[in-house]
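Handout for the seminar on molecular recognition.
Each group receives one record of this type.
Step one: identify the two inputs.
Step two: read the structure output and locate the region that could contact NDP.
Step three: write two sentences on what you found, then compare them with the reference statements printed after the record.
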Amino acid sequence: MKASEVIANLEKRFPNEPEYIQAVSVVLNSIEEEYNKHPEFEKANLIERLCIPERIYQFRVTWQDDNHVIHTNMGYRIQHSNAIGPYKGGLRFHPSVNLSILKFLAFEQTFKNSLTTLPMGGAKGGSDFDPAGKSDPEIMRFCQQFMSELYQYIGADVDVPAGDIGVGGREIGYLYGMYKKVTHAYTGVLTGKGLSFGGSLIRPEATGYGNIYFLQEMLATKGIDIEGKTIVVSGSGNVAQYTIQKAMRLGAKVVTCSDHNGYVYDPEGFTEEKLAYLMELKNVRHGRVKEYAEHFGLKYVAGARPWGEKCDIALPSATQNEINEEEAKTLVKNGCIAVSEGANMPSTPGAIKVFQESGLLYAPGKASNAGGVSVSGLEMAQNSVRYSWSAEEVDNKLHDIMRQIHASCVKYGKNPDGSINYVKGANVAGFMKVAEAMMAQGVV
Ligand code: NDP
Ligand code: 2IT
């Protein structure tokens, strides 16, 4: 396999899908060497079969707003690979959602889920519906209409969606209610459910906590502690909130958060009180971080991202391509020692190159943000046995999984000089398990 040829071929076939091509390119370039040690992979054309999703569903979602105006949105589910388990991955509701973005996310999810050690294939779905400014009844009607189509394609042993940008506990509740109504079945078909109807403790916290656990593993390779470190976080949603919480509780100083309008800088760092305010503002009132800055009298920078603020550690937790090459150079210049991705593909290829050449500790999202889907996998396990584990038990399992993911990255990504290429390590480790399963299952 020549990665450049496979990528050129995919570019020709899917010319309007830049994010998908970007995600595939990073993976292919880093697994090329390992792949070519296995002539049997090439004979089975594994690489193309792994790049192209097994199935894509697209449907129209029609819903009525509070003023009786009728809207149509697109709905999607990309079932990328079920080589190692049922399709699994989140749903994203955001106006930017299109096939390219969901294909990149489903592709990434396949490798991420493979790394978790749990039996889950890769998928992603969602809609270009914009939840911003919608009333609660509007959100409910949209979720119901979306599920009235999606239900046909999913199932507890088939495909298990969860949340992502714009889809949190509230949306999962509405989606679950409709699934149950149309199928008459009470199954673990979604994860991220409320605790009263089959959800798992620690699922809301899992992605953020998992990223911090992964970061600690990376820092430990250099004998560094998170305590006392200054951290820049982007985003202010689910992942950002619990990243801030865990970092703060471990003694780090988190000086920023953001949304798509701008960022807040707080030289004193987050406290429990400030974080509680941010959570209420974002999760209950659906407000903007500008209001957070005003409430606490903090610096607010409109129309900018936080990467220019001096820090030891950067934890991008908002969205894809939110750190470009220039911003990466600024982080390095300011003395940043680690970047651990909470979001999916937040660093552009140019930024990744800067990070890797600088020698800082850089973890790609498919390794460092895998805690969320890992606890989703634990939720599926609990649903299967109709039982629930304590918060401590789930948190311990999450911690253990993040340690194992780190160990897999080290196994496949250790350079001769002892440094670790986490991109290569995560991609090769994720790939090898899926490849082995595909080889065993024949040409399907
Ligand atoms: P939320 O919807 O809870 O929060 C998203 C945050 O990112 C908001 O602060 C939002 O700001 C900001 N954001 C979204 N889109 C953009 C954009 N185009 N430009 C700037 N800011 C933006 O989502 P999550 O916290 O769940 O997800 C954040 C990231 O983490 C995503 O990349 C997601 O794929 C990834 N992830 C999520 C997991 C999970 O379990 N939830 C698991 C693994 C990864 P605003 O309110 O202004 O839109
Ligand atoms: O990107 C991700 O891993 C998620 N949004 C979580 C997926 C899941 O199934 O929990």
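Reference statements: The pocket of NDP (ligand 1) is lined by residues 94, 96, 163-166, 168, 207, 235-240, 259-261, 317-319, 342-344, 369, 372 (CB under 6 Å). Residues 391-413 form the longest helix (23 residues).
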